[in-house]
Design brief:
Blueprint: E1 6-7, E2 13-14, E3 20-21, E4 26-31, H1 38-43, E5 47-53, H2 62-72, E6 75-80, H3 86-105, H4 118-138
Antiparallel strand pairs: 1-2, 2-3, 4-5, 5-6
Length: 143
């Protein structure tokens, strides 16, 4: 079984072992790709935009929804135009969206306050004293 996050077989996103977004919550839109390519690029609908409105996504728990909206905003969008095929761009857009959402769910552990060790404090003071002695030697003697 692949590790999270990944796109499952039916187009849903598995973000963590407990958080999954159904394919019905994701809107896919196809459009023409920009850039060079002439007639093919102007007429082929190969670019894919994957969008999820977190406010109405029914497959998200409230806690996860609130965290994602706080970090990423209410609407998350991912665009893929790298490939010439719509299918490959669809997969790429879903993978990008999955990575964004999984990153938004990441919680940093709370920071534990620490204090400098006695040895580090001593080293700091000693280096400051040495620097002061160096500067004092640069000063000339007063007549």
């Amino acid at each position: 079984m692949p590790t999270a996050p990944y796109v499952d077989d039916d187009g849903g996103l598995v973000l963590t072992s407990r958080c999954r977004i159904a394919a019905t919550d994701i809107a896919l839109q196809v459009t023409t790709s920009g850039g060079p390519g002439g007639q093919h690029a102007n007429r082929s609908l190969t670019a894919v935009v994957a969008t999820i409105d977190l406010r109405v996504a029914v497959s998200l728990r409230d806690r996860d929804r609130d965290l994602l909206i706080e970090k990423l905003g209410p609407v998350v969008r991912s665009t893929a135009t790298r490939f010439r095929s719509q299918g490959q761009n669809r997969q790429a857009a879903l993978e990008q969206l999955c990575a964004k959402l999984a990153g938004g769910l990441h919680r940093d552990p709370p920071r534990r306050a620490t204090k400098p060790s006695r040895a580090s404090q001593t080293r700091r003071v000693d280096s400051k004293k040495a620097r002061g002695r160096t500067k004092a030697l640069r000063r000339g003697t007063e007549d």
